Amino acid sequence: MIRVSVVGAKGRMGSHVVDxxxxxxxxxxxxxxxxxxxxxxxxxxxxxxxVEFTVPSVALDNVLTLIxxxxxxxVGTTGWTDERLERVREALAAAPRDDxxxxxxxxxxxxxxxxxxxxxxxxxxxxxxxxxxxHHPNKVDAPSGTAIHTAAxxxxxxxxxxxxxxxxxxxxxxxxxxxVVDGVHVHAVRLRGLNAHEEVxxxxxxxxxxxxxxxxxxxxxxxxxxxxxxxxAAGGHAGLTVGLDRFLDL
Length: 250
Known about the structure:
This protein is an alpha/beta fold. The protein folds into 2 domains: 2-104 and 218-247, Rossmann fold, CATH 3.40.50; 110-215, Dihydrodipicolinate Reductase, domain 2 (2-Layer Sandwich), CATH 3.30.360. The protein contains 6 helices and 11 strands. The chain has helices at residues 12-23, 56-68, 82-93, 110-122, 145-160, 222-234, and strands at 2-7, 27-33, 49-52, 72-75, 101-104, 128-135, 179-181, 184-190, 196-204, 207-215, 239-242. It has a 6-stranded parallel sheet, with helices on both faces. A hairpin with a 2-residue loop joins strand 9 and strand 10 (207-215). The two termini are 28 Å apart. The model has no long low-confidence stretch (mean pLDDT 95). GO terms for molecular function: 4-hydroxy-tetrahydrodipicolinate reductase; NAD binding; NADP binding; oxidoreductase activity, acting on CH or CH2 groups, NAD or NADP as acceptor. Keywords: Amino-acid biosynthesis, Cytoplasm, Diaminopimelate biosynthesis, Lysine biosynthesis, NAD, NADP, Oxidoreductase.
């Protein structure tokens, strides 16, 4: 049995993780901690993998604490910048165990991971590409980590294909063109009734390809969370791994 501790256990996502861990045949809940609880209670003596689902403002400190405790961590909280990722790598370099692992996923939904992969595959064949992400209004970060990850993948694929900047004659827009991620415009929608959705628009003269992923319920993220937990528990993933696509043999 894989012993799993959940940080953020009372949150919207954390509560689903607790249920998923309890329901799976090969995992058991070790500790369920939330805001105000002491993360030092999570140790290798009681936990094989910790799952961190909180908010961006505390996620980095939580992960650094768990690394110092010698525990492998699966992170679902978004808002990770290059600088924050580098701090995780530095902490892992000084970790108590040489094989210690941290996994961070911009999105645990298999559909969203595949959409990002397909977008990167298609990107070199289109002159234009933009990303629209749509979420519930309680989401604290915008654009989503998934959309940033998708846009960065599109940009890398375009650069590898030798493509230049995308056409855009806009002179002033007051911010309506969205955040620019490595040259790719990303737009965020926050609307009551939505859960988690992403649409990638790719265009050439006379044609358009739309790639869309919809997660209608948070339960859709749980297979991805359990996959990451099992991968880290099995070993062989020392250091920092980002993106569930790394575990899908894409």
